[in-house]
Specification:
This protein has 168 residues and is mainly alpha-helical. Helix content is 64%, strand content 8%.
Length: 168
């Protein structure tokens, strides 16, 4: 970029305009904007971009969590079908007839397919939203129970008659 445009560049930068906006207003490429800013010792405020990225990642995490819930619901529905009556139907024969039969339960092969589909839904849900309490749940419960016991002990120490088991 020519030196005679540096003042305009500095003014736009001082106004807090971003790389793309300066590029559009000055009619130069974003690459030239970056090189000129570096040459002039100017930096662009990336906090807005970082905040937007954090917000976008949070939105994606929420969407994955909702999808994981839907997959668990799907798995529950598929598993329930294993023990429910199942309608079998067929088109065929020389007269191309329609035939149907209501079975008490799906065939073993269909049960296996339903379990496989349910298992796949659960696996996918765990990949989208992994179990967070798998290891920490017991520790959290122990901590809560310890604090509760400590609180009861402190109350008993303050007034031994307040905890007598008579409900008073």
């Amino acid at each position: 970029m020519r030196e005679d445009r540096w003042d305009e560049f500095r003014t736009l930068h001082a106004q807090g305009k971003g790389r793309n906006q300066i590029s559009r207003e000055m009619g130069i490429t974003a690459c030239v904007v970056s090189r000129t800013a570096q040459h002039l010792g100017l930096d662009f405020d990336r906090s807005k971009i970082q905040a937007a990225t954090v917000a976008r990642l949070a939105d994606l995490a929420e969407r994955r969590s909702l999808l994981a819930e839907d997959l668990v619901s799907d798995a529950e529905k598929l598993r329930a079908q294993i023990w429910e009556p199942h309608l079998y139907w067929d088109w065929g024969g020389k007269d191309h007839d329609y035939d149907e039969k209501l079975a008490d339960q799906p065939t073993p092969g269909d049960k296996r397919a339903l379990m496989g589909a349910a298992g796949m839904a659960i696996d996918r849900s765990l990949k989208l939203a992994p179990l967070e309490m798998a290891t920490g749940g017991a520790d959290d419960a122990k901590s809560m129970l310890g604090k509760l016991a400590q609180g009861i002990a402190e109350l008993a120490a303050e007034d031994p008659n307040s905890i007598d088991g008579d409900g008073e």
